[in-house]
C-alpha cells in the first residue's frame, strides 16, 4: 500500500513505501481472442455453417422478433454469460435495448 505521508496516525499512517507492480496473471487472459483462434473459428464456421437454432434465430431477427430470438437462444445455449462467450447474444441484446430491430436500423 503506497502511503502519502510519513505520519504515525490517520488513514495513511506508517512508513512511506512504493507499491510493487506485479505482472498480470496468465488467467486474466482467459477468453481473449487471438489471431489463431479467430482464424480457426472462421474456418469452422465457413465449413460447417450455422447450427439449426442459429438459423432460426436469424430468421426471427429478419422479421423483427428480437426478444423472441433472445429467448430462443437463451433456452438452447443456457445462461446469458454462455451466450456472450459464444458471441451470439450481444448484438441481439443491443438491438432490444436500443428499441430497434434489424428492419428499423436501415435509416
From TrEMBL:
Subunit structure: Component of the large ribosomal subunit.
UniProtKB keywords: Cytoplasm, Ribonucleoprotein, Ribosomal protein
Listed PANTHER family: 60S RIBOSOMAL PROTEIN L36 (PTHR10114)
InterPro entries in alphabetical order: Ribosomal_eL36, Ribosomal_eL36_sf
One GO term describing the cellular component: cytosol
Protein name according to UniProt: 60S ribosomal protein L36
A biological process term (GO) from this entry: translation
Family: Belongs to the eukaryotic ribosomal protein eL36 family.
Lineage per the UniProt record: Eukaryota, Metazoa, Chordata, Craniata, Vertebrata
Transmembrane segments: none
Pfam families: Ribosomal_L36e
Leader sequence segment: none
Subcellular location: Cytoplasm, Cytosol
Gene Ontology terms for molecular function: structural constituent of ribosome
Function, in words: Component of the large ribosomal subunit. The ribosome is a large ribonucleoprotein complex responsible for the synthesis of proteins in the cell.
